[in-house]
Amino acid sequence: MDKDKLKQMAADPQYIEGIYNYCDRWCERCPFTSRCLNFALSAEEFNDPESHDIRTDAFWKRLESIFALTKEMISDWAEEEGVDFESLQLSEAGDETERHMNEAANHPLAQRARSYATIVDEWFKKNESVLEDKEKQINLLSFFDAENRQKRDELVSLSDALEVLRWYQFQIFVKIVRALSRDPELEDDLSEFPKDSDGSAKVSLLDIDRSIDAWSTLRKCFPGQGDEFLDILLHLDRLRRGIEKEFPDARSFVRPGFDDGRGDELLHTESRANAGVK
Questions:
Q1: If phi over 0 gives left and psi between -120 and 50 gives alpha, with beta otherwise, what is residue 53?
Q2: Predicted TM-score of the model (pTM)
Q3: Residue 64, Cβ density class (10 Å: 0-12 exposed, 13-18 middle, ≥19 buried)
Q4: Which among 213, 208, 183 has a CA at the least distance from the CA of 196?
Q5: Which of 207-240 are b and which e, b meaning 16 or more Cβ less than 10 Å from the residue's Cβ?
Q6: Which residues contact 177 (CB under 8 A, 6 or more apart)?
Q7: CA separation for the pair 15, 36 (Å, rounded)
Q8: pLDDT (average), residues 228-241
């Protein structure tokens, strides 16, 4: 892709600006991919199976070309705005960013999120054979009489819960570290704008909410492990309350597309179109 095409795509009003900054990266389950520039660019640049595989040269070559294009566009912008990169203290800024990231990764909330990721791994490893049996049941229950349908629905619900746990397992840590690595001075300078740290914290809270729901589903499916599930739920609840205390405005942060009504408008329009309503 050349920079002219990228600029053209970025200027397209169908894309919601910044919607990809505060999402959970689960594109397969997102109803707003048609409004996401990041998704469109990924589809454009990584449009074959080989380029999607991080283990291949094709993936890294494609990624390198994206970085080169980004650098070129930033240079063009700097030239247009009269910004002299040579005069910028980039190394000092990089050191400061690294310091914020290190402090964030060692924050008690981040440590609790990292501990949770380990807990998830340990539970899946401990219950590997049980989960394999459940998967076999899901595959076998393909008949649609009333009894089997109810049982199959329960197992599908379990399967969905397991996917949710795995998807958010590490993302909670990543998002809370991003929130904690905020620069207080910069946020004060940009006080008239919503805080990026609140947006990242909100995503981590939503990930925790969904993970708690998933563990609650598993608790019903495996009643013999009630105490173990309760410990996990308490761990997540403490983490959730800690994030809400650290970022009291996170829940009210309005994410572009998801929380400002534009996403609902899109779904309503597509629903009418699918129904053949003009």
A1: beta
A2: 0.78
A3: exposed
A4: 183
A5: bbebbeebbebbbebbeebeebbeebeebbeebb
A6: 101, 104, 105, 107, 110, 113
A7: 5
A8: 96
